Structures are given as C-alpha cells and as structure tokens.
Amino acid sequence: MEVVLAAHAGFCFGVTKAVETVYEKIKEKKTNIYTYGPIIHNDIVVNDLKDKGVKVISDVSELKGVSEGVVIIRSHGVTRQVYEDLKATGLDIIDATCPFVKRIHKIVSEESRKGNSIIVVGSSTHPEVEGIVSYSDGPVYVVESPEEARNFNENRELNYTVVSQTTFNKNKFQETIEIFNNYGYNINIVNTICNATDERQSEAREIAARADAMIVIGDENSSNSRKLYEICKESCLNTYFIHTPEDLEMNIPSSAKLVGITAGASTPKNIIEEVQKHVRTNF
Ligand code: SF4
Questions:
Q1: How many structural domains comprise the chain?
Q2: Contact present, 97 and 73 (Cβ < 8 Å)
Q3: Where does the pLDDT of residue 250 fall: very low under 50, low under 70, confident under 90, or very high at 90 and above?
Q4: pTM (two decimals)
C-alpha cells in the first residue's frame, strides 16, 4: 500500500508563530501567561501549555486584579473592543494575530470608511469572523454559504466590499460571489482566503481524487480541518476524520492501494508523523 502525505499538512505560518510565542514566554519564565482563547484548536497542545502554567481566558474581566503578566492574542485575532480592553489592562499584550487576518481588518476598516457596506463570507460565530466584523465602521453582513447569498436581500443601490474568512472553501466563495453578481449587487471582491488554506485544500482535493482512503487529522473545533474533511469526502468516500493516532480504529478497505493523509492548520507535526507511521506499519 502506498501512503501519500500532503506536503501542506499541519501547522501553517500563522499558527506556528502564535504557538511558538507562547512557548518562548514559558522559556523566559514569565509569570502569569495568558492566551485569549485557546491558542489553537488542538487539545493536546492546549493541555501541554496548561500543564506548563498557561491560562486560557475568554473575557477581559478575568484579568481583574492582575497587575503583572503577559496576554497573547492568537492567530484568529480579536474584536477591536477586546483589543482596546486588553491594552487598557496595562499588562504586556502580545498580538500574534496572523498578518493575513490583520490585512482583512485593514481592508474592512478602510472600505467601510469609504462608505461601502461590508459582506464577510464565513461563519458568523467563528472568532476570526467576529474580529473582522468589528473593524467595520458601517453596515456589515456575514454570509455563511451560497444558500444564504441567494436569500440576501439588501439595497442593490449600495456598494459592497466582499471579503472572506481566511479558511473559507475557495469553490464555495466563487459560487457565493457569482450569486451576488447574478442578483445585481455592485460588489468589490477581495479574495482573502489565505494561500496556506488554498494550497492545503487544493492538494487535499488532488490526493483524495486518486486515493482509495483518505485520513484528515484535525480537531472537531477547527474550522479549516472540518472543511478539509468535506473537500476530501467529496472525492473519496472512504475519508476518515481523526483527532489523534488513538482514533485510528478505522476500517481502511483491505483493497486500498493508496492512502492519503492530510491535516488541518492546528495539527502538530508529531501527531502527523505518528499517524503516518501507524498507517504504514498496520495497514
Ligand atoms: S490559515 Fe492562513 S490566515 Fe489562518 S493563521 Fe494560518 S497562515 Fe494565517
């Protein structure tokens, strides 16, 4: 059996930077290290950090009474209000928001100030999207799917700037844009899907199309991992979504000649290696 590991599996640039920042602060023996939300959607990493004393907060009020410490903002970024509130605590705030996410904040801020309404294509409850939305100084809408774009019924006389969540599915984004165009909306499109996501998704699609079985490693809470699973499942029915090597109790068909492996942006390298090793030796 041949095992093909995607070259773009695992930590992306933004996640690597955020995670490394936290480990650096641990090494520097900083006291009171906080992350605003789990630094990545991966329990193994988050629990390791917890064991090393890192605390996860979900609200600035949790810092009340803390006079010394460092707070790291994860790669998803935070809302404008949260950022201001964090700064106001007087603690050391390290902004590890991915530069690709920051770019969207800037676009949304500038375009809304020009008078354009903003449409964000993405998941409204995802922290990255909540952050993006907060940078608009005018009307802002979130559209989660092509279906929602079909039901979008706003003023067609206005100008709209459309951006996307960095991890949104490229094909679905194109489909959504076409719907806005066909429905007569005056849209200025800025494709903000990040290259890492784009490359990861294209490669996964290509491997899944020729694989007899496909393994996607990621956390259920990781939006990019779940999307990766959806993409692979479209081309390869025997696609399995696993979190750790322990979940490898799957039934890879014995006739499988090619097994593909890919992983979301929050999956550490050692887990990918373990899964790869396990598949090579046990199937
Ligand atoms: S997926 Fe892209 S935008 Fe998101 S953290 Fe990684 S590099 Fe940044």
A1: 3
A2: yes
A3: low
A4: 0.85
